[in-house]
Amino acid sequence: MSDLLETTRINLRASTEAKVVIEQAAALMGTTVSSFILQNAYAAACKVVTEQNTLRLSQSAFQVFISTCEQAPTPNPALQSLMNRQ
């Protein structure tokens, strides 16, 4: 995240209580409110994206998947023609 050369602004509104707690947390972490919010929002966003992009299978479903991948089908004429193109 710190490798990014460009920065852009993110605006948000918060309740007074949320602002006070965030300011306290930022001070306890020895960072600015902006840095605190960005670091925590970025980490949460990465987690959400990773979870959405991760396929979870049961052990039995995984075994079926692996077995299917290991059983290469015989190429049909259309595939053979495509692979022979230069």
From TrEMBL:
Superkingdom of this protein's organism: Bacteria
Keyword Transcription regulation: no
InterPro entries noted in UniProt: Ribbon_hlx_hlx, TacA_1-like
Keyword entries, A-Z: Toxin-antitoxin system
Coiled-coil boundaries: none
Keyword Iron-sulfur on entry: no
SUPFAM superfamilies per UniProt: Ribbon-helix-helix (SSF47598)
Family classification: Belongs to the TacA antitoxin family.
Name of the protein this chain belongs to: DUF1778 domain-containing protein
Organism (species): Acidithiobacillus sulfurivorans
